[in-house]
Amino acid sequence: MREMRSDRLAAPFPPRRLRIERVRRSRVRQTSSVAVTVLLVVVATGPSDAAPPVNYDESKVPHYTLPDPLVCRDGTRITTPQQWRTKRRPEILELFRSEMYGRAPGRPPEMSFEVTGVGEAFGGRATRKLVTIHLASKHARVAIDVLLYVPRKRQGRVPAFVGLNFRGNHSISTDPEVPLCRSWMRPGPGVVDNRATEATRGVAASRWPVSTILDHGFALVTAYYGDIDPDYDDGFRNGVHALFPPPGGRRSPHDWGSIAAWAWGLSRIMDYLETDPDIDRRHVAVMGHSRLGKTALWAGANDERFALVISNDSGCGGAALSRREYGETVRRINTSFPHWFCDAFKRYNDRVQDLPFDQHMLIALIAPRPVYVASAVEDRWADPRGEFLAALHAEPVYRLFGKPGLGIDRWPPVDQPADSGFIGYHVRHGKHDVTAFDWRQYLKFAARHFAR
To answer: Between 3.30.460.10, 3.40.50.1820, 3.10.25.10, 3.40.50.300, what CATH number should domain 110-450 receive?
Structure first.
C-alpha cells in the first residue's frame, strides 16, 4: 500500500484545497406478518461490544493509508488497461466478494419474463409496462415485479434509469394503475401488518420525478427491493437467498448478504431490459439512494452492462471511505444490519485499517464507465467528505484509461457539481434524501455521456 492524501478538508463553504499530508495508518413474497424494528442502539454485552460514540469531529479522524488501486497484492504495478482488466480488477473484485459483500451465484436455473400489463400513463406521455420476473430453482420460487415508464415521444429505443425503491412500485407516483406491492414491507406510515395499503400510494414521489425523467427522453425502471430480499435478518432463508441454500444448510463466511442479493436482482432486471424492444440496452444507468446506493455501486462493479452508475448518499459500505471512521462505521453498520454484508466483513469491525481495500477501489471497479457520487451537507452519518475522497482516489484508474476523473482536488462548493469528467460529484444543501437537485445533475450527466 502506498501513502495517499489525507482528508483534512474544511467545511464545503468556502472550499479549501486538500492539504497534502503523509498519512500513517490508515426476495420469496412473505406470507407471515413479521414486525421488525431496526435498533440503532445496541445493548452491550461487554466492554468489547460497546459501540464508541459517533465521531463527527474531523480532528478525530484517524490518519490512515489507503491501498493503491494500481498496485497488486504481489507488488506488481499496473500500467496498462489490459493489466487492469486481466489482473488487478479481478483481484479487487474477489476481495470485495470474499471479505465484504459476499459471493453471489449466477442466474437461477429457471428465469422467465411475464408482461402483465401495458397502458398509457401521465396523460399519454408515457407507456406503462408491468413486468414480472419469475425466478425458480428446485428449492424455491421468487417473483420480482418491475415497473417501466417509457416516453412515448421518441425515436427508436430510449436510454433508461433503473433503480430499486423502498416503498413499492405504487409509491413512486400516484398512478392508480400500478398494483399495490404484495410483499413484506418495513413498518411505516400506511403500512399495516407489514403490508402496503392505499395510503402508501405516491408517498415516495418526491424521490422519483417521473415526468422530468420522461421529458428528458429517458425511461424509468424500478422494482421494490423487498421483492428481491426482505430487509431483515432471518438467517438468509427468504427472498432470492432461498433459491440457493448453502450446501448442508451451513453458510460460508463469504456467502452473499442482502446488498449483494439486491445487486443480483438488479442484474436480473437488466436481463429483462436486454429483451425489451423499447429500451436501449447499451445506455442503462443504475441509480440508488442510501443502502440502495451501496447496492447500485456493487451492481455496477459486478455487471458491466450498466453503462453508468449513480450513488446517492450511500455512506458506509457505499461510497464513503471506511478508514475515516466518521459517522456510521463498519462496526455500527455490521451491528445494526448484520444481514447486509457477508459474515467475513465483521472481522474488520475494530480493525478497518486492515481491510485489503477501501471504497475508492469499489468506485474504481466501475472504470472506465462514468460514475456519479452525491452527498448532502447535513447527512453527516453518511460522511460526505469521505464520499468525495473515495471518488477522488478512484481517479488513477480512470486516468489509466485516458479518462478524466473528477478534475479537482478539493471539495467543491455546496450545490456546485463537479461533473465535467467521468467521475461526477456534488454536495448539496439538505439532508439524507433524493431531491430534484440531485436528479437534475444525474439527467445532465447521463445525457452527456450517453450522447458520446
So the answer is: 3.40.50.1820
